[in-house]
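Re: the request from the purification team.
They wanted to know what the chain is likely to look like in 3D before they choose a buffer screen. I agreed to run a prediction and write the result into the notebook, where they can find it.
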Amino acid sequence: MKNSIVILLAGILLFSCNSKPESYTLNGKLRGELTDGTQVFLKTIGENNQPMDIDTATTTNGEFTFTGKSDIPELHYIFVEQLPGYTAVILENGEIQFNAQRDSMGFAEISGTFQNDAFADYMEQSREISMQAQSIQQDMKSASGEAAVALQDEMKELQEEYKTFELDYVKNNPNALISALVLDRAITTKAVSLEEVEEIYNTLSEDIKNTKPGKQVQEGIEKLKASEEAGKNSSIGAKAPEFSGPSLDGSELALKDVMGKVTLIDFWAGWCRPCRAENPNIVAVYNKYHDKGLNILGVSLDRTEEAWKKAIAEDGLEWNHISNIAYFDDQIAKLYNVDAIPAAFLLDENGVIVAKNLRGPALEAKVAELLN
């Protein structure tokens, strides 16, 4: 009977050691003078990219607690009523410890779970390099001549060191949420090539790939692939991709319907000041060369139909226009890899792109050349 009890207890102990926590408890401690009942907010980033409340707690002797369930680790933020700054924390099932000085929320100590320990390790190493950068920037304020040049070179080396540190950290920590967050930022800032991003992404664990930032990395890779393909299709020497869109009267108008001996595809918008500043020059070129074979198709990235049509009337743009009223989500812009405006593509009579983004006298000179 004794042996049976021992085996049973051993089995229970083994089960409890191997089982994963089914909920989280975040125990917080704020040092410094703080009124009891001060509100502490647990937030996440919503779809509109704004902080969104998840939970609220109140302090007693500087302590507070959040409890809940988080099957997938996710980045959250802790804000304290009337205190400056905030702290990032990764919510995952388990017991999380939070300690901070009331006036230094950005330097809080967070520990207790795998993801938060990995996050803290990353932040500690990252801060060391950041402090070196701050020191160099401070020295640059009073440096001049060769000393300033040397400091600039030192800063460039440090930036490369930081990039290497981050990528190495991701490669060495495939189970850490911070790895997906770092990789997502690398895609946004175009710090690494598509091939390198994809190679590193494939080393991440499946659990991390299924997190919100993991899925954002995958979406970023797909966008990079589409952008590279669009870049090839819209490069000088390539046949201009065909497209169509709603014209001013609502009918569908295609590029092939407006081709001339020379055709200018002009990506612009009523809200774009550089576009509006360039419009008088385009008008002058159009008036001078339209009868000789120049056609223009304006592709607007406006947000509203009213703003689009108003800008056309104000600037006297008497050529063909289309717009999906989709801002930079416009599929034609994506087809031509346009992520900034004004952007322009000049086509010859065969629809081949012969020049890009010509403005002022350069545009007229090229049009005149093509029309002899």
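For the purification team: The chain has three domains: 17-112, 116-232, 244-370.
Please add any questions underneath this entry.
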